[in-house]
Amino acid sequence: GDPAMPLLERCKFLAITSSNLDEFFMVRVASVLDALEAGRKPSTPDQLARERVLELVRERTQAMVAEQGRIWSEVVRPALAAEGIVIRRADDLPEAAAHDLRRRFEREVFPVLTPLAVGPGLPFPYISGLSLNLGLTVRDPASGEARFARVKVPRMLPRLLRAGDVLVPLEQVIAANLDRVFPGMEITRTALFRVTRDADFEISDEADDLLGAVEAQVRRRRFGEPVRLEVEARAPGAMVRELRESLGVPEREVYAIDEVLDFTDLWQLYALDRPDLKERPWEPRTHPRLRGEADIFAAIRGGDILVHHPYDDFDTSVARFVEQATADPDVLAIKQTLYRTSGDTPIVPALISAAEQGKTTVCLVELKARFDEERNIQWAKALERAGVHVVYGLPGLKTHAKLCLVVRREGETARRYVHIGTGNYHPTTARLYTDLGLFTTGADLTEDVADLFNYLTGFARTPDYRRALVAPEGLRRGVVGEIDRVVEGHRAGVPGRIVMKLNAVIDGAVIRALYRASQAGVPVDLVVRGVCGLRAGVPGVSENIRVVSIVGRFLEHARILLFQRGDERRVFLGSADMMPRNLDNRVELISPVEDPVAVEELAGMLEVMLADTALAWELAPDGEWARVAPAPGAEPLNSQDELMRRTAARGAHAE
After folding, report:
1. Beta pairing partners, 168
2. Which helix (H) or strand (E) is 516 found in, with range?
3. Burial per residue of 604-634, b for 16 or more beta-carbon CB atoms within 10 angstroms, e otherwise
4. CA 554 – CA 431 distance, rounded (Å)
5. 566: closest CA among 485, 452, 450?
6. How many CB atoms lie within 10 A of CB 555?
7. How many CB atoms lie within 10 A of CB 43?
8. What is the 3 state secondary structure string of 305-363?
9. 482, 570 Cβ separation under 8 angstroms
């Protein structure tokens, strides 16, 4: 909705909003429906009844989707037309364009359509999740018999077809040519609809074959129960009832959509070659200490290295770390976690090469990384074939920690090198998400990481970690302990401060600890990208807490925790958010950052984000978010632009 955002970026955000909402229903809403059906009592600290949760979800979803549609129809689509990107209805075309579109339909669309009617011997068809469908009432004029039919809008074709110099939605092209699909019949009613299915599955802790169990569940996901039915607002009531009854969807799960069903297809517009309608591209820079042909291990021995993606380049830091370890004859072992990665990752080929060279190579592949299960299964099998020791983690837990451990022979000793990250080993998202990585050879921390790998691959009691905070055993306790330590000092006259940058804050124990800090007078600043279950600024409870959210061109994904007590600053980074699922049901690691230069860099990042007046939104006591505006007469501060500027300046200075 921001008019300052380039036009195709606004299309991109409309698409992202839709895909995130799809996943929200497939996973979060589905889990509430499952719990309601099973009769489980509310499990959240507020004890909100699940029926009420679903009512509130519906209210918020309807308001958000309506606003999304308004922005598209009243603002974005007209602005696109003004830029020569015109989207028109199939029945609103000049004769020449309509004729061209008819030919395209015959040649490209009609051959892949499969009409499915309902009648004797023809049951209601299976509707795949997130597919776009035309529901029709088809009447035989000779006999008067009418039947329901469904035509699936093919996913393999672009959603917008070009007709002359305009674009036409594919579903309208199909609707305009139904005489070819149902020759000799009358189409009396039509409605576009879309079904969202439950994708939330659980794997039994007792599963003997985890790989096989995940493969089976992924196959079953296609047939999950419907959790949402979206229909055009103009759809006839009788057809909506027929769809509801046939799909088994209660009325509360039906959403009437005034505008576009499935904005995710606006990625097609974002792919247009119109750089004038997009953000100025950013090319990540190589960290100054990793320039040229420098030995990355020597660089790390010279002091910890902090990288901040996408400002710092992933390929010349993280990927290079693994690739150099593979090529180095003195490297004895490489141990790596993989939660999500991409098809073009250099990490997996490097691990395969290391195993083929005879290096001890271990990879913890999280098969249960939601919506990446199939890719992770493929990677796991490829790694196993190459001789990599593949481990799938502990029963009942997801391995979410972002770790790479390299053991290198140096003289008569074996030295450990570690990368600890906040994001996945994923080259694509490393250019889109802000994430941090710490390279260190510090003895205590590298030993903690080695102990965690041995615990995950072997059979032993939970280690006593020296420096790291590790979930599920001690991370929550460690974070609450750090908060309480600041509070104790503040009460004793040692000024304290707490700053946290996270994706989400909904853990009851952590929220209560932050409330205690506020009530003791400790200033608390939170930068929370997503869900925040804490209320800021409530008198007597949280008046010393400020919560902001940064929404910009890069998705804010890094996690940083800063606890200040007088002149002492304790700073941590890692993979965990303050959520019960992270703290209780995942293997997570939060690492202290002890290098003074890295500590200053992290503190500086936090201050820039807290000063943002271009991308920041602030949380009010009533739970609403308000845009942060610059002071009168001041230029807005865009924290992401500022961090790009600093990175570029640092690189120029290093040269």
Report:
1. 161
2. helix 508-519
3. ebbebbbebbbbbbbbeeeeeeeebeeeeee
4. 8
5. 485
6. 17
7. 9
8. EEEEECCECCHHHHHHHHHHHHHCCCEEEEEEEECCCCCCCCHHHHHHHHHHCCCEEEE
9. yes
Tokens of 417: 């090198």
**Contact criterion met (CB below 8 Å) for 261 and 192:** yes
The one catalytic residue in 400, 426, 490, 557 is: 400
Strand partners, 497: 564
pLDDT tens for each residue of 1-35: 889 899 999 999 999 999 999 999 999 999 999 99
Tell me the backbone φ, ψ of residue 359, rounded to 5 degrees.
-70, 145
Q: Please give the pLDDT value at position 210.
A: 59
Copy the structure tokens of residue 236: 């006839």
The answer to whether 309 is a known catalytic residue is: no
- Give the H/E segment covering residue 194: strand 186-197
Mean pLDDT of the chain: 92
Cα gap 403→439, rounded to integer Å: 10
251 three-state secondary structure: helix
pLDDT (0 to 100) of residue 46: 84
Cβ atoms within 10 Å of 532's Cβ, excluding its own? 21
Q: At what angle do helices 373-385 and 210-221 cross, to 10 degrees?
A: 150
Dihedral sign computed on CA atoms, order 176, 181, 186, 191: negative
Report the 10 Å Cβ neighbour count for 132: 22
Phi and psi (nearest 5°) for 330?
A: -85, -10
| pLDDT attached to residue 220 | 61
**What is the DSSP annotation of 534-581?**
PPPS-TTTTTTEEEEEE-SSSEE---EEEEEETTEEEEEEES--BSHH
Q: DSSP class of residue 144?
A: -
Using DSSP's 3-state secondary structure scheme, residue 477 falls into helix
Q: Which residue has the tokens 């807005």?
A: 636
Compute the distance between CA of residue 202 and CA of residue 216 in angstroms, rounded to an integer: 11
Tokens 């009432």 locate to: 137
Secondary structure (3-state) at 108: helix
Query: Angle, to 10 degrees, between the axis of helix 475-491 and the axis of helix 508-519?
Result: 10
Could you say which residues of the chain have pLDDT below 70? 201-223, 343, 368-373, 653-655
3-state secondary structure of 648: helix
CA 70 – CA 1 distance, rounded (Å) = 10
Tokens 């004895």 locate to: 332
Between CA 400 and CA 589 the distance in angstroms is 8
User: Following DSSP, what letter does each residue of 5-70 receive, concatenated?
Assistant: S-HHHHHHHHHHHHHHHHHIIIIIIHHHHHHHHHTPPP-STT---HHHHHHHHHHHHHHHHHHHHH
The pLDDT of residue 370 is: 62
Burial of 153 (0-12, 13-18, 19+ CB in 10 A): buried
Strand order from edge to edge, sheet including 132-139: 116-117, 146-152, 132-139, 186-197, 226-232, 254-257
Question: Which of 309, 535, 526, 268 lies closest to 430 in space, CA to CA?
Answer: 309
Residue type for position 83: E
Measured in degrees and rounded to the nearest 5, phi and psi for residue 604 equal -65, -40
Amino acid 204: pLDDT: 52
